[in-house]
Amino acid sequence: MPALYLNSLSRRAALGACALALTALAPLAAHAATAPATGAPIKLALVESLSGSFANTGEAVFRNVAWAIERVNGRGGVALPPSAGGNRPLQLVRYDSKGQNEEALSALRAAIDDGARVILQGNSSATAAVLIEAINKHNQREPDKRVLFLNYSAVDPILTNEKCSFWHFRFDAHADMRMAALMDVMREDQALQRVYLIGQDYSFGQAVLREARRQLGAQRPDVAIVGDELHPVGRVKDFAPYAVKIKASGAQAVITGNWGNDLTLLVKAAREVGYEGMFYTFYGNALGAPAALGDAGVGRVVAVADWLPNVPTAGSRAFYQAFRERFPKPQDDYVHMRMQLMVESLAQAIERAASTDAAAVARALEGAQVSLFGQGGRVRAQDHQFQQTLVVGVMDRLGAPGVQFDVEGSGYGFRVVRQIAAEQAAQPSSCRMQRP
C-alpha cells in the first residue's frame, strides 16, 4: 500500500512514530486530475476492527474508503479558498478498535489529539452508539475541536431515531429499511410457511430479529416462526449445534443479519448438516459466504444491499471493473458503493462549506445529493439518514443469466431480482435533532 495512509495504534506514542505524509495517487481513468493538492491534509480517522475475529471486515472497509479517497485526491483533492488552505488532500488514518468499545473510545481520543476532525466507523452498531455519545460530549466541551462522525455500516435504526445526532451521518440503509426490502421478496413466496430467526446478541442483531417479527406479523401472518435465538458476537467457532436446530425445526428459510465470520461459519455449518432451506440475509453476498455454501447456495441465498456488482447498467459495470483493477486479488473483492458516495458527499460538503469546521460541513451535508457511476442518493436533513436505492439479489453460478461477475473468485455471484427506489425504501424517523 502506498504511503498514503497512516496505520495507527491507540497508544499516543505509537501514533507519533507511525506518522506518514499524504501523497496523491495517480487519478482513476474516470476522473481527470486538476490542480494538485498542496495544502495541509484533511485527516479522516478510520476507527475499526483491524485485528481479531472481524479483521477481514475492517480491512474490506479500509480498501473501499482508501479507493474513494484516491479518487478525490486524484482530481486535486478538496478545493478550498486560499484562506482555508487551498486545494487539500484527504488523509486516511487507521485506528484498530480490536472489536472493543473501550478501545474504540481510546482510538477516538487519540484521533482527535492527532488532528482528525472526521471519524469513520460502521462495523458495530454498539460501537457506533458509544461513539455518538462520546462525540456529542466532546463537541459540547471543546467547540474548537469538534468532529463529524460518518457511519457506513452501523444499521441499528435507533442511531437515526432516538439517538440521532447533528454530528452523525449514516450512509447505509438501516436494518428496518433492509428488512423491508427482503420482505418485498418474501411476500411473494407463497410456499414459505416456516422461518427460523437467528442473529448476533447485541443491539443490531436484536433489532434485526425484532423487525423481522414485526414485519412478518404485518405482511406474512401465515408464516410461523419456528426458531428465534441470539448467539454471542464473534465468539462462536462451531455453529453446528445451531445448524442442527435449524434443520430439525423444519424451517424453510432462515432470516439473519449476521455478518463477517458469524455469517460465514453459520452458512458453512448449515451446508454441512444438509440444510436445504433459503437464507434471507443482510450480508450473504461476500466475505466468504458464497464460497462456504457452494452449489448448496444457488437459488437459496438472498442478500439485500445498497448495490450489487450485477446491477444491470453500464455505469455499474464500469464501477466494479475499476475496483477489480485497483484490487485484483480475489480475497479483496468486497466493494461498497455507499462508501464511495460517503466520501464524495464529504468532499463536496467541505467545498460547499468553504471550510473544514465540523458544524459548517455538517450543515452542508444536510440535504446533500451525490451520484457516481449512475448510482446516487441524498442525505435526509431530518435525521441524517442517507436515502438510496436498495437491491435484492439471489445467489447463482457465474455465467448464469444476470450473473456477469462473481464475488471473491468463488464462481458464484448475485443476480438482481428486485430494485427498490429510494422513495419506496425510505422509512419514517422519530428523530428530534438538537442542532448547535
TrEMBL record:
- Which segments of the protein form a coiled coil according to its record? none
InterPro entries according to UniProt: BCAA_transport (IPR051010), Leu-bd (IPR028081), Peripla_BP_I (IPR028082), TAT_signal (IPR006311)
Q: Which residues form the signal peptide?
A: 1-32
Full protein name: Branched-chain amino acid ABC transporter substrate-binding protein
The lineage's top-level taxon is Bacteria
Tagged with keyword Signal? yes
| Entry-linked Gene3D superfamilies | 3.40.50.2300
Question: What SUPFAM superfamilies does the entry give?
Answer: Periplasmic binding protein-like I
Tell me which PROSITE patterns the record gives: TAT (PS51318)
Q: Which UniProt keywords apply?
A: Signal
Limits of the Leucine-binding protein domain: 41-395
Pfam families, per database record: Peripla_BP_6 (PF13458)
Q: Does the keyword Signal apply?
A: yes
The membrane-spanning stretches of this chain are none
Q: What family is reported? A: Belongs to the leucine-binding protein family.
